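Worked Example 4.2. Consider the chain below.
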Amino acid sequence: MGAASGPVVPGGSPAQPGPAQAWAALGGDPALPGRIRRERRPGLLPSALPVLDLASSTVSVCALAAAEFLAVRTSELVPPVDTDDGAVAAAFLSDRLVRTDGRPPVNFAPLSRFWPVADGWVRTHANYPHHRARLLAALGLPDPGPAEDEATVGRLAAELAERSAHEVEETVIGAGGLAVAVRTPDEWAAHPQCAAVARLPLVGSARLDTAAPLDPGAQAGPGGLAGLRVLDLTRTIAGPVATRTLALLGAEVLRIDAPDRPELVDAHADGDLGKRSTLLDLSSRSGQATFEELLSGAHLVVTGYRPGALDRFGLAPESLADRRPGLVVGQLSAWGTAGPWQRRRGFDSLVQAATGISRIEAGAPDEAGTDPAPGALPAQALDHATGYLLAAGLLRALSEQRAGTAGSRVVRVALARTAHWLLHDLPSEPTVEPGGAPVPAGDFDPSPWLTEADGPLGRLRYVLPPVRFGSPGSAGPADWSRPPGTAGADPAAWS
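Applying the procedure from the previous section yields the following structure tokens:
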């Protein structure tokens, strides 16, 4: 792989390429990124920020971590990794490119958008029914249901226009809803949550005990994870990207959702490839008993909720490791594990708005000096990148257990920390100048990286996985073993 161009760090030497930075954050052998080969396709995922390099870097280190774990299990050399910018760009757009019987997905509900307020802009997220209900209730508005969304949008716009961004943010968050003020990069830099996030590692990892690694009880398989079992308690892109990657590599992944909050159908179609899906009430005794039975056979548990939100169900990493020594736990959050916002809910779009990304992507003021409406990255890039970092961290933890120091482990990532990396540390030339036009690259045609399959959801079009490693003719898995089934329809048991 050729040397990447990038900024000069204060010491005067070029900044490390993105894969080397990410691999260092994962605690890996610094020589191994030399195994990565990248097929460059300039101009994809056009942005004022280095989004394509974020995408390529995170997919590359995820594939490298998978290749390393396969080598650990088979006692062979780490195979080479091949990353194609086209495959990566398509994968980062997978939630938009998925089709069920030809129907395009609904990525954002009508109440999930930017709104002008008295002193600027806010961004709301109301894709899930309970978040929609909390948003409207917090602002004193009735909810006549989705059938009358056009009228509801009008009433909400009028209500928000009379309030300040800070007032909306605090009022909605206080009611358990989701809204953030759209901040400039400087405004975010002055916020205490920014300082807290900057102190966090890009990928955090901690050893919880000295337990021996859990035996997979099977041969490694072409992806390296055959025999491993994963309990998946995540939703909405980042977590499902991580766990569908583990499923691609051969793990048995069982997704768990609450009976009263099943996943949205389009998110399920994209995020649950290769998995089974069940419903389980963890607040009931029977649900707890079933979970304990599942935990007794699991090798990994992955959660995607606010820090501490699942502790009352016995899902704190230390508690899980006490009951299943040798376990690897993954934790994904929006804002990280420190700072005043650590227990707040969040999604990619909200993190973009709060951290200044939406202002950067908006471009320059017009001739009259009027700021344009906020913009967004060309994909849910924080979600996808954080998902691949989480998968890489889990794979590295499995390798460390076997080739380094034994012990249960917890791996932590956060959307806001990935945003900080994109904004401040990731070297590259952006594909759009702020306020300018994309670097010409032709229209992106994702068709080489799309496939179709029939399944319980219907005829599904989806993006092939970008994680590839191995020699030609003996590369890792090229596709998932199965399309998603009906959400929540599988038994709460290992197959």
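Residues 51-74 form the longest helix (24 residues). The chain is about 35% helix and 15% strand. Compare this with Example 4.1 before moving on.
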